[in-house]
Amino acid sequence: MSSVSTEARRCAARVAPLDPATYARHAIHGTERTWTQTNCYTDLVIELVHGLGNDPCAMLPFTLAIDFEGDQWTFFKPSHHDLSMLYGLDVQELAMWKDPIEHVCEQVGAGRPVLIELDSFWLPDTSGTAYRTAHQKTTVGVNEIDVERGYMAYFHNQGFFAVEGEDFRKLFELPGLPPYVEFVKPVPNFIRRTQNELLDCSLALLKAHLARAPRENPFVRFKARLVEDLESLLAADMDHFHKYSFATLRQYGACFELAETYLEWLAVKSITGLEMPRSAFATISQTAKAFQFQLARSMTRKKTLDLAPLDTMAAQWDVGMTLLQSRYA
Fold first, then answer.
1. I want to staple 120 with a disulfide (CB 3.0 to 4.6 A). Which of 126, 241, 264, 295 is the partner?
2. What mean pLDDT do residues 70-82 have?
3. What kind and span of H or E run contains 322?
4. 6-186 in CATH: which number?
5. pTM exceeding the 0.70 threshold for the entire prediction
6. What is the pLDDT of residues 139-158, one digit of tens each?
7. What is the helix (H) or strand (E) element at residue 42, kind and residue range?
């Protein structure tokens, strides 16, 4: 960090008045969930939206457009358009033309959280997985930074954390190409929506996302592809299993649990008649979790995998999506 300007070294800035020691994560990241993690970007945005005082459940209609993409399921995440419409949060790419820490200081100082790719090796919240053991790229949302103190408070995965000292200094010693960085600025003159306005906006987004949802059952295509890939999967090691599972079973399993959460949120808002699709998506999520363990056992024992759970999930997708399409599309 020797190239950091004197001005940046004096930087001490914060967006929201949050303390990692007392921060309460959103219920979406509660311990009772079937999938305690979704994916790194979506988890981060959920907590960022929550930490800024908004209800992240309103943005969940995007989950209904998930599809099987051939080599993976959709890496689902809320669109910038949705974040702008619901919460007045405008996500923009930040061009890296000087030391990244200087950009972070300036944007956070302007009241704009910064989403930046950093190395998990230096992030204490990844203790037990990557911290001080593995170099893995991950995106964090910077809410507070104090360069002179050597301190940063940030959103990451399912929570809000702090890093300081040597870890803080090493985080910004970024070798190679500059990281991908975004900043989140308030939409000018945006007035925070009332609960009724937020619901109406969310329902409009629901219709839009249903309009781009797959018309053919993605589980039928996924099963056909898994039949093709199964021989190579059963011959692979567990490191390959974790990569495959993250791109497939975990993606759609966690996504449909969020879809279930969204329908539950609508029910709390007095939107009735959604019990069947909500139950269908819960079944998909829970069956995907069990199927993930079944695949792991099959790969460990090199034994055939029963694919019948995919038929169950396909049937539940038909139930849930048919009812939602008939009502909202």
1. 126
2. 97
3. helix 308-328
4. 3.90.70
5. yes
6. 999 999 999 999 999 999 99
7. helix 40-51
